[in-house]
Amino acid sequence: MNTRDSHAAAMGAAHAQSSTVRLTAAQALVRYLAAQQVEIEHDRGRRVTVPLFGGVFAIFGHGNVAGIGEALHQHRDVLPTYRAHNEQAMAHSAIAYAKAHMRRRMMAVTTSIGPGATNLVTAAALAHVNRLPVLLLPGDTFVSRAPDPVLQQVEDFHDAGVSANDTLKPVSRYFDRIVHPAQLLTALPRALRVLTDCALCGPVTLALPQDVQAMAYDYPRDFFAPRVVPFPAPMPDAAELDVALTRLRAAKRPMIVAGGGVLYSEGGAHALRAFAERHGIPVGETQAGKGALAWDHPLNAGAIGVTGSSASNTLAHEADCVLAVGTRLQDFTTGSNTLFTQAYVIGLNANAFDAIKHRATTLVADARHGLDTLSALLGDWAADLAWTERARLLAVTWRDTVTHRTHAPPAADTLPYDADVIGAVQRSAARSPEDDIVVCAAGTLPAELHKLWRAGRPGAYHVEYGYSCMGYEIAGGLGVKLARPEREVVVMVGDGSYLMMNSEIATSVMLGAKLIVVVLDNRGYGCINRLQQACGGAPFNNLLEDCLQGPHGAPAIDFAAHARALGAQAEHVANLAELAEALERARAADRTYVVVIDTDPARTTDDGGWWWEVAVPEVSTRDAVRTARAAYDAHVAARERD
Fold it and tell me: What EC identifiers does the entry list (predicted)?
């Protein structure tokens, strides 16, 4: 080889060396996540570029401590690692973080290979149902199988390739098992696409065998170049627009159902308000969509569906056209398909799977683009003036009902119920009520909050009700606080959900992420107890007093003492007056503050609501069950006639 050839070879080798970097698979994964950025709207419309991933929740164990744990330590300054106390809970926190950021930022979660991984299944299902992004990184068994079987390994007698992580496949939007470091070059971009796509959005699982985490590979350096991630927002199709416009122009009594897709669409809430005002159309809000329109807007008829307002449900049942924007039209929204019986439904949704629900005319598009395009083409068309005015009047009447329900003092010698507590919480923020974010999930409270909470702006209402997952509340509150540290986060939770998952109180104290947690103690599962009796059943196994008990009876649980044991400040209050005083102390506190109050397990807000189909036994020895079955059959028959 001559001198020129030797020099060329040396230059080529140097170039090759400089264009790659040798990393373990775990190091490459973490470095890639840390490089992803997103442009978001900050104060007063200013755009800023921030990391796409706000951090990684981790509980280290066998299968992730040596590989991804070492990689996270290397990059802890640019990709924070948060230690939690329960794998399901930390995934809930990560999901809530993404929801609080309207899906524009997100988190990853890493666990060990066995119970840590399977603890993610419930949270993954929650994210899947609610169309929320979270990156799950469970450890996995050895690809080499040299030490097979390993500690915590789930062995399948018919398929040696199956591991505990396969339980995550049905509840992941994208699943991959990384069996070679080079797979990350394709798996990570695919995962990112799913996490940021408005139609595909949901949980992504990358199972990480522990030996592969530690393997080294020469990765292209440009794979780790900082990148601003786009969030594609589809425009409406011309043919679908024509059909939707024809339906709307023929309508006299149209109504909008605003779902979570309005909030997740950048500018969607503004587009919704402009559309409703220009065309005189009332708006009903789903659980996920609540807050898309301010509670006191003249055209906001309130919550819709089974947990809806009388105003919204009256209008929905009389409407001749329903424009369902960014909602998957689950049974609580449609009253088990009995609410929109006189209406054509137009499904405006970024996800075609959701757009076709309820036999709808489809308009597949981002909420903002769809509403803006429809409005421009509709021009001066508007709903009948009498319909718009009636909607305004019904909305005013409903707001008066809310005021009455949340301000009426309970009768003497009676326990307060949820509406009383909701009113006290909102009044405690009288100086800046729109700055509060309320967090809740399962039981009666979501129904009461959907009807009665006054959400003044997008993001002020954070209730997980797609999966109705008990235990989400406190963990979700932590995720919201990490996303919105400048806001007061108020978690409202029943005693049943508190007992299911409370460990992240300790995490919130450790991280300095202050929450206000209001525990409503009705001594059992009050919501299901009432449903049980509404279906003709006897009170059984729901309230503590109706459960099988040993010689010492049901425990008298001191929730305030328990919360103090986890590091929070806490107190139990005897009535609403004491609750108001305690909430003042909670707002002034420098750490998580838990306030406990006893509440009535039987009483709920009767105003509003709609039928919900819960199958009642055809045969029973109980008269109450037979009566409930007759009522059920009548509802089903009415739906079939409609």
Answer: 3.7.1.22
pTM score:
0.96
Q: Which two tokens stand for residue 447?
A: 């129904």
Q: Do strands 106-111 and 516-521 pair parallel, antiparallel, or not at all (unpaired)?
A: unpaired
* Sequence ranges of the domains in the chain: 17-228, 238-398, 408-598
Residue 641 CA to residue 635 CA, distance in Å, equals 10
Over the stretch 354-407, which tens digit does the pLDDT of each residue have? 999 999 999 999 999 999 999 999 999 999 999 999 999 999 999 999 999 999
* Residue with the two structure tokens 């997740």: 264
Domain 238-398 belongs to what architecture?
3-Layer(aba) Sandwich (3.40)
User: In sequence order, what are the residues at sequence separation of 6 or more whose Cβ sits closer than 8 angstroms to the Cβ of residue 302?
Assistant: 284, 285, 295, 308, 309, 311, 312, 395, 398, 399, 402, 451, 608
Q: Which CATH architecture has domain 17-228?
A: 3-Layer(aba) Sandwich (3.40)
pLDDT band at 11 (very low <50, low <70, confident <90, very high): very low
- Statement: residue 539 has pLDDT above 70: yes
Q: Judge if 17-228 and 408-598 fold alike in CATH terms.
A: yes
Packed helices 444-452 and 385-407: angle between N→C axes, nearest 10 degrees: 120
Domain 408-598 has CATH 3.40.50.970: yes
Cα-atom radius of gyration of the chain, to the nearest Å?
Answer: 26
Residues 239-258 have pLDDT tens digits of: 999 999 999 999 999 999 99
